[in-house]
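Researcher: Go.
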Amino acid sequence: MKTLRGLLIALAAFLSGCTGHPDGVQPVTNFELSRYLGVWYEIARLDHSFERGLSRVSATYTLRQDGGIDVLNRGFDQSSGRWKEAKGKAYFIDQPSVASLKVSFFGPFYGGYHVIDLDKDNYSYALVCGPSRSYLWILARERTLGRVTLQRLIDGARKAGFDTEGLILVDQK
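Model: Structure:
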């Protein structure tokens, strides 16, 4: 029984650690969910197996009845000629005014989703990270993002310790 209890405590600590944000990186404050909802296009990302080979990637966020957020990630798999989708749900970790959420695509397992830079005037672009510096996305409301804005976001991510040399620019055509 002691071993099971220890395992459960370790598992809980591990899972809660997956929702945090990297040290030294702060989520956006004064966040307005109603302005963030809708479709976002993936402009750039760090490589991960769950998105490898996908183009025309988008994420759609809609409000759930329970106050959470439904997440629909969609991308075109060039090799199979088919669309791939992943449906999930997200909830604020703390206050809804802080852009720090936990998102799940696999049952009770959650990972961190943290908006760390945002066009607060128009909500037209966002820089998002996961629980570690291995996860980074640049999102925009349009399928393209101006070169100057994109470079500013990349520079900011580099200064925050992300491996921006590994960024993949997503084909949105």
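Model: The two ends are 56 Å apart (CA to CA).
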